[in-house]
Design brief:
Elements: E1 19-21, H1 23-28, E2 29-39, H2 43-50, E3 54-55, E4 60-64, E5 69-70, E6 82-83, E7 87-91, E8 94-95, E9 116-119, H3 122-132, E10 137-147, E11 150-160, H4 163-186
Antiparallel strand pairs: 1-10, 2-9, 2-11, 3-8, 4-7, 5-6, 7-9, 10-11
Amino acid sequence: MAKGGKKSSKDASGEEARTIENRKARHDYEIIETVEVGMVLWGSEVKSIRGGKVSLAEGYVRVEDGTRRVGTGDKGKFSKGRFAEPGMWLHSVNIAEYPPAGPAGSVGQHAPTRTRKLLCHKRELLKLVRATDEKGVTVVPLKIYFKTGKAKLLIGLARGRSRGDKREAIAKRETKREIDRAMSKRR
């Protein structure tokens, strides 16, 4: 046991297991499918994630196939503007600054809520683009964790729940807990 009486949870490779979850997403959305993707990060961002200084709650994922125009207010067929680069981007996820990397705004420090590129296979990207074209379907970040030393993001293809659906899910969860409690006391 480590000094101070705390046990550290380590996986098979000897790395400390650090997982940051977006619990609110599972409450607000019905998760249809999940995909594991990589992230393009700076060194100070990796250190902050290892320290658990991340907030996924307000984050979202944009999926682009390169055929849509970006940067124009006019959505017409012949609108000016550039095409969006094909890929996925993580927006509004707050990864706190890492103090040993220097003062805020310095060269070694990162912007806490910058847009980060996500890495995935082309076939996964195209599948997500097709799925998000359907009305009411979006992509949300669910969990950040480390796998073989690399930070991974679990994203979910999700459909929004109405207030009634949320209440129904809570009621099902509560009845399941009560049944499990009753069964465990019976033994």
